[in-house]
Automatic annotation (TrEMBL):
Originating species: marine sediment metagenome
Transmembrane regions: 49-73
UniProt-recorded name of the protein: Uncharacterized protein
Entry keyword set: Membrane, Transmembrane, Transmembrane helix
Length: 77
């Protein structure tokens, strides 16, 4: 039950944060974060070292989350 509540709150927070209007920044025009991220996806294709860093970090994050989930399940919380 708490997991469903947490998932629902994450979804609501995602929609709320996506609706925030961003103002132009002093350093680079302050574009929308999602559109800027999609424009820079070529970094993952072109820069092998950065691509390996992102993949490694994502895999470490997944394994850490699995460890915490298993620890909580084992503790019976």
């Amino acid at each position: 039950m708490f997991l469903l509540l947490a998932a629902g709150l994450w979804i609501i927070a995602g929609f709320l944060l996506a609706s925030v209007e961003e103002y132009k920044a002093e350093t680079g025009g302050g574009g929308n974060a999602m559109s800027e991220a999609f424009k820079n996806l070529s970094l993952l294709r072109d820069d092998a070292l950065f691509r390996h860093f992102v993949i490694t970090r994502a895999l470490l994050l997944c394994s850490a989350l699995a460890f915490f989930a298993l620890s909580i399940a084992h503790a019976g919380v």
